[in-house]
Task: inverse folding
């Protein structure tokens, strides 16, 4: 299974970006899995940002992004996309998409994509 993240870039504070994670190599709709996004800011540990169940029925968010980020899933396209609004400079990080068995935990993820850089200028 390969995950490909895209959509990163430079945006001013208060702006928006939409990331996307495309999966290939397996039909994710055939079994329960969790799709999560993590991020790692310079000098900090990687942290959970947002996630969704394979059905899209259950979503979860880190407190720092609640009310600003919305994650959605398209099973037909095998993509997961967090819409990131009202971005702040502290959202600057490399964002990683992942898929696995246990939601919200790095050690619960079985597949990882390469990161995409999000830079929010003040």
Result:
């Amino acid at each position: 299974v390969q995950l490909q993240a895209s959509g990163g870039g430079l945006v001013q504070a208060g702006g928006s970006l939409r990331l996307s994670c495309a999966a290939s190599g397996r039909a994710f709709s055939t079994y329960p899995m969790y799709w999560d996004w993590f991020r790692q800011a310079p000098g900090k540990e990687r942290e959970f940002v947002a996630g969704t169940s394979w059905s899209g029925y259950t979503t979860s968010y880190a407190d720092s992004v609640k009310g600003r980020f919305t994650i959605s899933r398209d099973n037909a396209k095998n993509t997961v996309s967090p819409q990131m609004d009202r971005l702040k400079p502290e959202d600057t990080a490399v964002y990683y998409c992942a898929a696995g068995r246990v939601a919200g935990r790095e050690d619960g993820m079985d597949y990882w994509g390469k990161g995409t850089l999000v830079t929010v200028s003040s």
